[in-house]
Amino acid sequence: MLEALGIGTATFIAGIIYASFAEWVIHRHMMHKPIFGYSHFYVAHAQVHHAVYQANDSYWLGDRKAENLTFAPWAMPFPVLFHAPYLLAIGYWVSVPAALGPVIAFTIYQAVYEYFHFCMHVPKDRWFESNRIFKFVNEHHYQHHKNPKTNLNVVLPLADIILGTRKKLEEPMAPRQLTPTNKTVA
Question: Among 77, 86, 66, which residue's Cα sits nearest to residue 14?
Fold first, then answer.
């Protein structure tokens, strides 16, 4: 049992690291240009999301309707389903815990991506929004809205750092404008 837990933990950590690179590749090659004639993610992200949420006061939702902030619900299981043949093979030929680690890692990574990305654009003074880690990834993402060729990771900028696309903000983020729809009551 302890061995299975160790294997699952090790492959979970490897899955999180892999997910950072997968996010980078998907963001760079599918969300900022059509690939093999498929342009759904490109249009939704580069042409719509970046046009609506820019590196100024429009970075935050404000009083607008919350649109184009998250992937379509059908895209949520994509990371696990895309890797399913490999994960099933690992489960069959190596061990079930070796396959479960990445399944859990990909699921958590995708959920954190969706939630953090939403919270970055729709701040509501949630308990973690003042945390320095969230502030760091939020500023990292804000820089991406200033220059879409940089800072392609939202959750874990490991791939940005290693692949040389991490850029620091040249100037601080514009102060966010809390509106009646996202202001907390003191």
Answer: 86
pTM of the model: 0.87
User: What pLDDT, in 10s, does the model give residues 103-158?
Assistant: 999 999 999 999 999 999 999 989 999 999 999 999 999 999 999 999 999 999 99
The token duo for 96 is 């079930």
For the record, the structure tokens of 57 come out as: 């006061």
> Rounded to whole angstroms, what are the CA distances from 111 to 22, 45, 59, 154?
15, 18, 21, 12
**More confident call, 184 vs 159:** 159
Using CB atoms within 10 Å of the CB of residue 180, give its burial: 0 to 12 exposed, 13 to 18 middle, 19+ buried: exposed
Give the separation between CA 85 and CA 70, rounded to whole angstroms: 26
In our burial notation (b when 16+ CB lie closer than 10 A, e otherwise), range 72-96 reads eeeebeebbeebeeebeebbeeebe
The DSSP code sequence of 9-41 is HHHHHHHHHHHHHHHHHHHHHHSSS-BTTB-HH
